[in-house]
Design a protein that fits this description.
By secondary structure, this protein is α/β, with parallel strands linked by helices. The chain has 4 helices and 7 strands; from the N terminus they run βαβαββααβββ. The longest helix is centred in the N-terminal third of the chain and has 17 residues. The structure holds adenosine-5'-triphosphate and magnesium ion (MG).
């Protein structure tokens, strides 16, 4: 699935709609209780945090969503299911990934959304939903590609 976004608001709305779809589908509430992993790819300023803002709104979370650059993970509780928002900018080994608690969060029946998934691409779950945000010409244009069943 591909979507061309022309503003941060459009990216947020696209993410909110995707979140609603996932909540109603088989990917979110899984029989095995595992979280649903959503891996964001895309460089500096591509709109990853904007995407997570919209996604959290779609799940029904009302609070603030900010980049967890220093904290590594922000937890958004209060929507339909919990969301764990990771920033992997400084993470690039499996040991480092382990130490963030990523694998514990996988058992928590929510959504795990990771910015800078490039850095942990080798360790992503096989069934992770891959979302790529790319610049496409004009300042505010972004191509958003969704891979994996949603
Ligand atoms: N179509 C668009 N989608 C998303 N953001 C856009 C778009 N057009 C312009 N922007 C702007 O680009 C910036 C995206 O910032 P954001 O923090 O979401 O990116 P990021 O990928 O998380 O960056 P970082 O690599 O620093 O984590 C914002 O300033 C936003 O207003
Ligand atoms: Mg960001």
């Amino acid at each position: 699935m591909e979507f061309i976004s022309h503003s941060a608001a459009e990216t947020e709305n696209f993410a909110a709609e995707l979140a609603k779809k996932l909540i109603d589908g088989p990917r979110c509430v899984r029989a095995d209780g595992q979280s649903c992993a959503i891996a964001l790819f895309g460089g500096m300023g591509a709109g990853k945090t904007a995407f997570v803002k919209g996604f959290a709104r779609g799940v029904g979370f009302k609070g603030e969503v900010t980049s967890p650059t220093f904290a590594l993970v922000h937890e958004y509780i209060g929507g339909a299911v919990p969301i764990y928002h990771f920033d992997m900018y400084r993470i690039n080994t499996e040991e480092a990934l382990y130490s963030t608690g990523y694998y514990d969060y996988l058992d928590n029946s929510g959504f795990i959304i990771t910015e800078w998934s490039e850095n942990i691409a080798d360790y992503l779950e096989n069934d992770a939903i891959i979302i790529t945000l790319e610049y496409c010409g004009e300042d505010c244009c972004r191509k958003i590609t969704v891979e994996g069943e949603v």
